[in-house]
Specification:
Number of helices: 13
CATH topology of the largest domain: Rossmann fold
Strand order of the largest sheet: 19-20-18-17-16-15-14-13-21
CATH class of the largest domain: Alpha Beta
Structural class: alpha+beta
Number of strands: 21
Number of domains: 2
Helix content: 25-40%
CATH superfamily of the largest domain: Vaccinia Virus protein VP39
Largest sheet: 9 strands, mixed
Length: about 450
């Protein structure tokens, strides 16, 4: 049986579309969003519909009932509908909301402007204020966007803290999609170019500091739940019918940036990086009392295990405060902790972070730092989606600097008299940076590969 890495490269129901971390890429010509969508159009069943007629308008409002109910359950505020079309949703939202809409279609906005304050253009380019909206809606829009991550990040920026983000899209990994394959009705819209699965949409939102409130598959309460739809499920030689799971709606909430990050287990050849906890305190004390560990630090050796406990609590406090993650570096053969590794100041919007680390002097010069550094770098680029990692160390800490350079880090600057040691002496620091493409290019050119496994 052929095995697949479901989360990182799920098997495509429609052939061999490329997986781009959160979605399958389905490159095809961009439809004309003026004529192909608004006016008389043909649906996947071959029926011609006038999308601006009173009859169609009523049907669209009925389709939006689930989202409208969620909006009207919230305190009125400022709402933005991205890809608002002619204003179906905006027309049905209570007038005590301040309503805004965005679309790229002039035909659509000519209608939508009757119900809201509208702007024309690509949403990320429109310059809305930060922390401005209470609710942002993207109803069947994200699948039309070539770079959906940019939209998700921009929505986070313009939402107020605790603001609500509502995203609806086809689930291209639904049971119906897998049963009907290329006959899946959601493939028939030539504007569908970024094909999400439910799990990947949720993962993307969580990766960008949204808290998931609900994941729903509206169907049974809709006008599509009919005997005809159920009977059509028996024949996958034709276009699939409307069915449960075809559409997923995720309701999320913007966090204040202090969301705790969970460290996954990272496995190398000789070491295993596990989430740092108080169970590491005894092993940490063994090396934290060694003076040589502090040759290039602003700290003093630990006098007793209580000093180590307080230091460990400080690291765990950073994790709890948010945007930081710490691992204990354990030897795989005996399980002993020989150091710690952290990724701090993680910024999901700018895709950058800084690393910090410490390894027992008993294990210096044996390649453990390179192995840990490689595993963490892979995690930062592959899992968090960062584009840049930085490290700051004393200018005379040549072992650390050389170790960083071995996997592609480059010196970028010097901070004069940046460090102050306990004896009062001051020391310059060196800033080193590593970009995502540099890391993978350097690894390929040097033909080193760390065995890596991630157990969530």
């Amino acid at each position: 049986m052929e095995l697949h890495d479901f989360r990182n490269a799920p098997k495509c129901p429609f052939g061999s579309l490329k997986w781009n971390k959160y979605y399958w890429e389905y490159p095809r010509g961009t439809p004309g969003y003026e004529g192909d969508y608004w006016g008389r159009v043909e649906d996947p069943d071959g029926k011609v519909r006038d999308m601006l007629s009173a009859e169609e308008w009523e049907k669209q409002i009925e389709n939006l009932k689930f989202i409208l109910d969620k909006i009207h359950a919230l305190p009125p505020g400022r709402i933005l509908d991205i890809g608002c079309g002619p204003g179906y949703l905006l027309s049905a939202i209570d007038s005590n909301w301040e309503k805004h809409g965005v679309d790229i279609s002039s035909v659509a906005l000519e209608s939508a402007q009757k119900f809201a304050i509208v702007k024309k253009g690509e949403f990320p380019d429109l310059g809305y204020e930060s922390d401005y909206f209470d609710v942002v809606v993207m109803n069947h829009v994200i699948e039309h966007i070539a770079d959906p991550v940019t939209y998700v990040q921009e929505c986070w920026r313009i939402l107020k803290t605790d603001g609500v983000y509502i995203v609806a899209t086809p689930d291209f990994d639904s049971g119906c999609a897998r049963f009907f394959g290329e006959n899946y009705r959601m493939l028939h819209d030539k504007g569908h170019i970024s094909l999400f699965a439910s799990f990947s949409l949720v993962k993307m939102l969580e990766d960008f500091s949204y808290r998931i409130l609900e994941v729903e598959y509206p169907f049974f309460e809709s006008r599509w739940f009919t005997r005809d739809s159920l009977l059509r499920m028996l024949d996958n030689s034709k276009v699939s019918p409307p069915f449960y799971g075809n559409h997923v709606t995720v309701i999320a909430q913007k966090q204040n940036g202090s969301k705790s990050m969970k460290a996954p287990t990272l496995e190398g050849e000789r070491i295993c990086l596990v989430e740092l906890g108080m169970d590491a305190v005894e092993d940490m004390f063994e090396y934290s009392k060694m003076p040589e560990l502090y040759s290039y630090m602003e700290l003093s050796p630990h006098r007793n295990i209580e000093d180590t406990r307080k230091y460990l609590e400080k690291l765990l406090g950073r994790v709890k405060a948010g945007n930081s993650v710490y691992w204990a570096i354990r030897l795989k053969d005996i399980g002993k902790v020989i150091g710690t590794f952290g990724v701090v100041d993680v910024d999901a919007n700018t895709k950058r972070a800084q690393i910090g680390y410490g390894i027992s002097p008993l294990f210096w010069g044996q390649g453990f730092f390179k192995e840990a550094l490689t595993l963490v770098s892979e995690y930062c680029y592959d899992e968090i989606g960062l584009e840049r990692i930085a490290a700051v160390t004393m200018a005379d800490n040549l072992p650390s600097i050389n170790g960083l350079k071995r996997i592609g880090f480059r010196e970028e600057g010097r901070l004069r008299k940046h460090y102050c040691k306990p004896d009062g002496t001051r020391h310059d620091a060196v800033i080193l940076g590593l970009l995502k493409d540099e890391f993978f290019s350097h690894r390929k050119s040097n033909q080193f590969k760390a065995r890596k496994g991630v157990r969530l």
